[in-house]
Amino acid sequence: MRQAPAPDRAAQRALVERFAREHPSSVLYDAAASALLDVASGRTLALEWARVERVEERLDSGTRRPYVAIRLDDGRELALADAGVAFAPVIDATGPVDGLPGTVCFRDLSGAEGRLAHFLADHAGEPPAREHVSLFLFCLAVVDGARAAGFDVSREERRLEQLLAQLEARRRG
Known about the structure:
Blueprint: H1 9-22, E1 27-30, E2 35-38, E3 43-46, E4 52-59, E5 66-72, E6 77-81, E7 84-87, H2 106-122, H3 130-149, H4 154-172
Antiparallel strand pairs: 1-2, 2-3, 4-5, 5-6, 6-7
Helix pairs in contact: 2-3, 2-4, 3-4
């Protein structure tokens, strides 16, 4: 049985570094620490090159914009894109969520959290509707996906706990 050729680490790193240089408002790469920084969230993610199977540039099917796909040896995939570091959401705790795309990022979380916070702050006395519960589940799936990708999401978990408490209090009336 033929063994797959070893990945060209120098070429993989060069692709990640080039993308980061060309998209400094989205993602940064710290070569010394071997870490990615998602600029929008300020979150870092260690990139263990020994666990990287493949790095390749692809085109987004909808926007035709380039992104870099990173596949790890455990099957996880990350993407470096205009929106930052993207990853798959995880729906184990939520079940299917309407409107949840197959790839998400912290900007998606920020937008959904913002809409939910707006409802809670500016619509006092209104009970949450199904759409507000769906927004919360969307946020939870993104945070769970970020955790599965390797991000520390303790700050995001605390914010979600606060939002959930407010939703539950509002529901009880």
